[in-house]
Specification:
Largest sheet: 4 strands, mixed
Strand content: 25-35%
Distance between the termini: 32 Å
Length: 120
C-alpha cells in the first residue's frame, strides 16, 4: 500500500480541511487514493526547531466505520522528538466511511507518513 506524505512547513496546529468536508460513505477500490478528509497539522516540536531538525513519522492504523482512527501505531520515525506531535494530529484525522459492496466497512492496515520540514 502506498504511503501518503503530508508536507508540513512550520505549522501551528492549523486545520488543513475545508469547513464542511464531505464525510459521506464512498466506494474506494484503490486504497492508495483513500485519503483523510479532515487533517490537522501537528505543532512543530520546539526541541526540533531549536536543533534545526527536519524529520518524519510513519503510522499504521485502522479506519473505523465512522471514519475515525483506531490502533494508531508509530511504525518508524526519523527522531522520537516528532512522534508525540505527529501522533496527536493523526488521531484527529477523519476519513469518509468506506463502502464495500454497498456496506460500510472498517479499513485495517492503512499507512501514513507525516513529514516535518523547516523552511530554508
Amino acid at each position: 500500500m502506498k504511503i501518503w506524505s503530508l508536507l508540513l512547513l512550520m505549522c501551528l496546529g492549523v486545520v488543513l480541511a475545508a469547513d464542511e468536508p464531505d464525510l459521506s460513505p464512498a466506494e474506494v477500490d484503490d486504497l492508495s487514493t483513500y485519503f483523510p478528509q479532515v487533517r490537522y497539522a501537528p505543532i512543530y516540536p520546539a526541541e526540533a526547531l531549536d536543533k534545526n531538525l527536519d524529520g518524519y513519522v510513519e503510522f499504521s492504523f485502522t479506519v473505523q466505520k465512522d471514519g475515525t482512527l483506531r490502533d494508531v501505531v508509530v511504525t518508524e520515525s526519523s527522531d522520537k522528538v516528532f512522534e508525540a506531535a505527529a501522533t496527536r494530529a493523526v488521531k484527529m484525522f477523519r476519513y469518509a466511511p468506506r463502502l464495500e459492496n454497498g456496506v460500510i466497512v472498517e479499513t485495517p492496515g492503512m499507512t501514513l507518513r507525516i513529514t516535518f520540514l523547516l523552511e530554508e
